[in-house]
Amino acid sequence: MVNQKRKMKKYLTMLLPSIFWILNSRIQHLKKLGISLTPKNIIHSGRFIVAAETCSLNLFPKNQIKHLKNIVDVGANVGDWTNSFLKCKTPKQVILIEPISNCAEKIRKRFAEKQYIKVEEVVVGARKGYIKFNITKDTTGSSVLKPKTKMKQYVKNNWKTIKIQKIKVKTLDIILSSLSEISLLKIDVQGFEEKVLSGAFETLKKTKFILIELNILKGYTHSSSLASVYKIMTEKNGFRLYNLGKIQRLNGVAGHVDALFYNPKNVCVTEEEKAIVTGK
User: Fold this and answer.
1) Number of neighbours of residue 187 by Cβ within 10 angstroms
2) Which residues face 147 on adjacent strands?
3) Which side of the chain, N or C, has fewer Cβ within a 10 Å radius?
4) What count of other Cβ atoms lies within 10 Å of the Cβ of residue 253?
5) How far apart are CA 56 and CA 244, in angstroms?
């Protein structure tokens, strides 16, 4: 028994420095993202890192994260992205936009106690009206656009359309007219990006950052392409590409990548931070 205790003590003596090193590394990593942990949450630091990466906070200039106050989540589904963001930061206001009724209701229940959260149950497009919306088996694949047949080899039957519903359409300029500033506009609309941006002329002027999913694999009929969205963002609206996330693959094929753009009229990015993209 004495020998066992000695062995355990020796083992812990060897192990504890490694544990402290790992925890300290995580804490320092989170500090760079502008996230401070309470003593109670230090043991869960790994979860906070996962949450930060899930909502792409790791793509931001570190000095800007603390200024993210008004957040808009376009294509919110059931609110997973926003939930990860809220684990890291508490903004002033969050607007989640989701056209599927069941998903929108799940969002309302999920964040019922958070008074600063608002849900808009509409499709976002280039002009107001009504439009047919394809609801798929896996609702994350739902879109105004029809999924291509070839996508079955990548996502099996998950993007099979199970219902087509006529849903109200609003532009971002209408939905967000009351906001004087938008810190972060996240867009995930399954190939419908061009139309969303077309109805956001005034919105983009007051937006600091845009986190948008760029399609490498065009999985929908008449889908926006990576090149077309990049051109709209940079040439038409004056945004600059700041950072890119990891390429997301579908059954081994490059599917899409998250891109972070910033508005140089609203955000001051240092030369050192610009080097993240330029590589200089």
Assistant:
1) 21
2) 220
3) N
4) 10
5) 9
Q: 3-class SS at 276?
A: helix
3-class DSSP state of 74: strand
CA 175 – CA 279 distance, rounded (Å): 37
CA–CA gap between residue 41 and residue 239 (Å, rounded): 37
* pTM metric for this prediction: 0.86
Give strand pairing partners of 135. Answer: 163
Tell me, what amino acid is at 111? F
49: buried, middle or exposed (CB in 10 Å: 19+, 13-18, 0-12)? buried
Handedness of CA 208, 34, 78, 135 (dihedral sign): positive
Please tell me the distance from the alpha carbon of residue 257 to that of residue 225, in angstroms, as a whole number.
12
Cβ pair 96, 79 in contact under 8 A: yes
Give the chain's largest Cα–Cα span.
78
Separation between Cα atoms, residue 75 and residue 95, nearest integer Å: 11
Q: What is the pLDDT along the chain (280 residues), one digit of tens a residue?
A: 556 666 665 555 666 566 555 656 665 656 666 666 666 666 656 677 778 889 999 999 988 988 999 999 999 999 999 999 999 889 999 999 999 999 999 999 999 999 999 999 999 999 999 999 999 999 999 999 999 999 999 999 999 999 999 999 999 999 999 999 999 999 999 999 999 999 999 999 999 999 999 999 999 999 999 999 999 999 999 999 999 999 999 888 999 999 999 999 999 886 555 544 443 3
Helix (H) and strand (E) counts for the chain? Answer: 10, 11
Question: Distance (Å, rounded) from C-alpha 151 to C-alpha 126?
Answer: 26
